[in-house]
Amino acid sequence: MSPGVPTALDRPHFIGIGGTGMSGIAKILAQRGAKVTGSDSRDSATAKALRAQGAIVHIGHAAAHLAEDTTAVVVSSAIRLDNPELAAAHARGLPVVHRSDALASLMQGLRPVAVAGTHGKTTTTSMLAVSFSSLGLDPSYAIGGDLDAPGSNAHHGEGEHFIAEADESDRSFHKYAPEVAVILNVELDHHANYASMEEVYDSFEAFAKKIVPGGTLVINADQSGATELTRRLQNALSSLKVITYGEAQSADVPIHMVTPQGLTSEITVLLDGEPVTFTISVPGRHYAHNAVAALAAGVAMGVPTSDMATALSSYTGVKRRLQLTGEAAGVQVIDSYAHHPTEMAADLEAMRAAARDSRIIVLFQPHLFSRTQEMGSEMGQALALADTSMVLDIYAAREDPVPGISSALIIDAARAAGADVTYGESKDCATERIAAMAKPGDLVLTMGAGDISDLGPRILTALDSDPR
What we know:
Structural class: alpha/beta
CATH superfamily of the largest domain: Mur-like, catalytic domain
CATH architecture of the largest domain: 3-Layer(aba) Sandwich
Low-confidence stretches: none
Number of helices: 14
Strand content: 15-25%
Strand order of the largest sheet: 8-7-9-6-10-11-12-13-14-15
Number of strands: 21
Number of domains: 3
Radius of gyration: 22 Å
Distance between the termini: 59 Å
């Protein structure tokens, strides 16, 4: 099975083509034979990978970047209305297609699996993609992070499955109609788009109701938001099969045991009353739960249980999810994408279990002013799980600064919780200070959703050049 290029997307132009979600769609379209162009604010390894697929990628934004034969312009919610390429598209009367609509069109004619949740989407989606690929099913997939090399976040496969990360941040996951949907957890985040938990529940309900009749919902039985969502959906999903997973005794797929083994975990679950044991090469109880969700989703798609468990054992992680950046002077530098307090605490608890007596040093970069304003206190409390930490300025991403909101909110909360925390005045200063304080045996975590991962290699260089 090889779906073609959707109508109007045979010559698309992507504004912000280097973004994780946008680049994946662009790659799949290029692999299907579309003539892809795009632009981004800076060059990157992702842009180079897209060029290798035949895409034309411009650096900077200008109306002239739209080709004469462009048939549609693809945007994400991060693109501002005053972007010159978007303005040119409107002036020319070109269709402007949201990223989620483009992704939904790529799923047509295939069997979609959509993975949603406040945390863990990228990991679980990548677990499914890697597992299905290792089983020779050659799925198409679009993931919110690279598996290994730049551009490995997406693939056009010849198989019948399409595995997609379903982003709730702007409600765009309402566009998908999956055969199997996974909901990992439901929490309040993305405060620029959600004013309350009630709005979050409504949004996830809308997503669940898009599952095709006769399809399956795999949902967490432990997390309070997910269990509340399940209760709310009881009368609405009569045409679906609902499979719960977790450590709750009432779960349809109960987790019997998670055994940490350094940077790996051995997991035993009961599936259809039979014990199933497998190992994943990432640490932490939260990643073990993600793997069980992937197991249940794979089985719901018809993959034999034993095959799915074996395939999950081949999973070795995804970029920025507790990924080892390198080691120098006896210090390991590990990269964490955690930016929500729940994620931060989970990653730090996982590293604490793996580190045993080693010190954990965190260099944290807050992401978004709105998130810091609402959750700065909880972020500071999470940092108290580290032995020492340093906090950089807020990474604004798509937002404008908010008066009175800074990383000081996090630092003050961390100190109130008893944490040893300091402020990093600049990236250069932070790199040097982290390298100076690290000792052989320590674990350094670069943590956040911005460009903090760029500092990991710089810390390693500073450690290598330290005369001690």
